[in-house]
Amino acid sequence: MNFLNPHFLFGLSFISIPIIIHFWFRKRLKRVSFSSLQFLKTAEEKRLRWLKLKEILILICRCIFVAGLFLGLSRPQLKSKFFAPNRLASVYLILDNSWSMGYGKNFFRAVETAEKFINQYSPQSEFFVLPLCPDENLKEPFWTNRDNALKMIKEIKLSYDSGRLKEILRRFPPKNMRYPLEYLYIGDAQELIFEELAPLNVKKFFVVRIPNGTNIGIERVSLKDPFAPSTNYYQLVVNIRNFSPSPCRGTVNLQSGDFNIQKESDIPPAGSVGVELTVPAGIKKGVIHFIEDSLMADNLYFFSKSIPGRLKILLVGEINQYLISALKPSIRIFSPVEVSVANTIRQVDLRKFNVIILNGISDISENDAMKLSDFLAKRNTGIIFLPGETAGDNLRKLLKNYDIKIQKKVTPQGYATIKYLDFDYPPFNIFKEVSGFKNIKFFNFFEISTQVKIRARLIGDYPLIVNNKNLLVFATNFSEENTDIMFHPVFVPLIHRLIYGIINQNFDNEFWVGDVVDTTKIIIGPDGEYFRGEKFTRPGFYTISGETIAVNVASKEGNLKVISREAMSSLNIQLIDPIKGLARQDLSISFLILSLFMVVMEMILLLI
Questions:
Q1: Which CATH number, 2.160.10.10, 2.60.40.10, 3.40.50.880, 2.40.50.140, labels domain 311-503?
Q2: Which of 71, 267, 566, 584 has the fewest CB atoms within 10 Å, measured from its CB?
Q3: What range(s) does the Aerotolerance regulator N-terminal domain occupy (predicted)?
């Protein structure tokens, strides 16, 4: 036991005062001659014995009152079985500064708790202090003394990043320790922090958990249908997750310049909901805000989208009226695509087109193959190949560069139908509940050999649609001799979605805090700062070569679920309460209550 205010222990000497008073004023009996009254003498002896006992009890009460009063004022502390004062160790201390620690005042509590635990160690102990989310430029940490460790803790700032213990221990392994090694993590002990962490071969790994509550946040914002061409408006879906066991009602607010839209939404307990917002096609970036709670980082979402616009398509080869009608049904109807026709690409400037459809072409020249390769290398471009009667050498070489080989032509007995559609391929998502593909017939098609993605198969396991990056190959073209797909309602939406699918590989110009953009170009940050090749450290809008990208906190961090005790046990980790786990258990109140109780007992004895 130790004392926070030991100078009050001097007051214990005042215990002698009631003892001195007791003996000084003790009653002395004086003999007085009196007539012999036997029974009166016996009664008097009994009363005198009780008075002596009562005086002793009152003396004890007064002594205990004085002792309890001054012991209470001296703040006695009991030692803890975990963190006894002046323990000597090499301490690997990790302070959680991930953005979930921004819940209320949790990060400030974590810093204060870290300081208290550091002070429990001996001044001779050494410390290895690290934030859970270190800066990318952080140099190799070093062992330091207790005073420097306290300074380093105060210098750690709250981050917008997410962290994992596995990554910290891999990046900064402890070495050259002078004393027994102890790991000490201080934070909210989220389950995801311990992801993929193998059981630790250490005797002492302590987790000091800072309690938090529940959270509601925006998980992501996505285009409702990114492969549908937009005209005047498009649909955004705001996914909001409620980690609380209680339902929530709030307002989703989208702000972009002068444009503002709001929508009320009910989020079920421990569930999520997608809130749809209709946005003008001219608005491609903005900020979405949801209700304020104790963790604000995920209540704001910065979005920047590549909205599918009007495309320029070059149809090369045979003029297929079915295909032209699907792309541009009438001059009176607005079409999301602009179609040009050419027999070959020899004299055509391909730079002004987004998509090239090679329809019914048997072969191309070497120069045309080079032009098509250069075209595919550009951003937001794509080629759809519909084979002719044969496939020449230059055409085969071009496709082989994309790991696609055209084999022999197949004419099934009767016809073949579609056996499989890859509904995980985003352009096909909308067709999950559509049964119209089952009745489409194919009379002639090429056998395709490939190791790349097969988006559709025919009966007999023949690939029908093959996709490698921005090149898409059909096993046949759309003529009446080969298929009747043109006469089915799915034909037009299928063509449009495939076209927008191959050129919109990435329609979200969005990243997470902690991501690194692989570019040599200069990036302008939210406050106009310049940097290059560094990871994003905070949310907001960034600019790269005039293009706006949005950066947000990782939504997974918003799940404040704490690691279970069973999981901690399997990892050889011991959970410590930040209050009970400290070395000092204050007994002041107990001693002061004891003093008050002695006052009450003395009053009772005096009244008897």
A1: 3.40.50.880
A2: 566
A3: 1-76
